[in-house]
Amino acid sequence: MPRASATTLESECTLAERAALTAVLRDKGYTGAHLEVGTAAGGTLKELMGVYDADSRPPFFVVDPMTYFDDQLAKVKTNLTGAGIDPETVTFWIGTTQDHLPPARAAGQRFDFIFLDGDHRHYPTTVDLGWADLVTLGGTICLHDRTEKFPGVGWSIDRFLDRNPAYRFVSQTDSLVILEKTAEAARQAVTTADLWAASWAQRKFKTARSIRRRLGR
Ligand SMILES: C[S@@+](CC[C@H](N)C(=O)[O-])C[C@H]1O[C@@H](n2cnc3c(N)ncnc32)[C@H](O)[C@@H]1O
Questions:
Q1: What 3-state class would DSSP assign to 46?
Q2: Is 65 touching ligand 1 by the criterion CB < 6 Å?
Q3: pTM for this structure?
Q4: CA-to-CA distance for 155 and 152, rounded, in angstroms?
């Protein structure tokens, strides 16, 4: 069954979540680069980019394996074009954070705004929070799908906030969580210990879920 966004090309965020995302961009007036991790058909991407005029829009980057549905990258580009946005102005990094964070870090890339909406399990969400090291002071990280269905998102956010005092919780709208970087970080945002803990939590959750299913609960 193909994803609805593959045919509608619409955002997978609710109206309220999209309003919260675009309000951040309007309020902050960021000029540095923006990153979306996990774009589906680019439905939210086109709304984020649409906040800015073409001639003053900050650079936009997307990280996505582009295997969510057939011809995903072509559909994202068609979607942007339909919204009057030149897809050639977006840097598409095909793959995951593990592929693209190390070279971006080595190149000194920085981001004012990051929207994480890729693989919602514990381990990949924690890996994606590693982009926090590249966020500028006053920058924002948003995470989608903090819900019971995706416990990995809430687990990763809670652990991240516990261990990263440079970030503060700003708000939650539906399943969208907004965090702000309020100080320079004293440590790497995601450590090896965080990754081990995420891997363990993910396995524990998967085992508990399969036991519940076998028991018919
Ligand atoms: C829930 S959809 C994103 C929805 C989109 N942000 C929106 O608002 O419409 C998830 C996306 O994450 C991508 N994805 C899956 N695993 C990923 C990973 N490890 N890193 C980055 N993107 C990933 C999928 O290809 C898919 O495009």
A1: helix
A2: yes
A3: 0.96
A4: 5
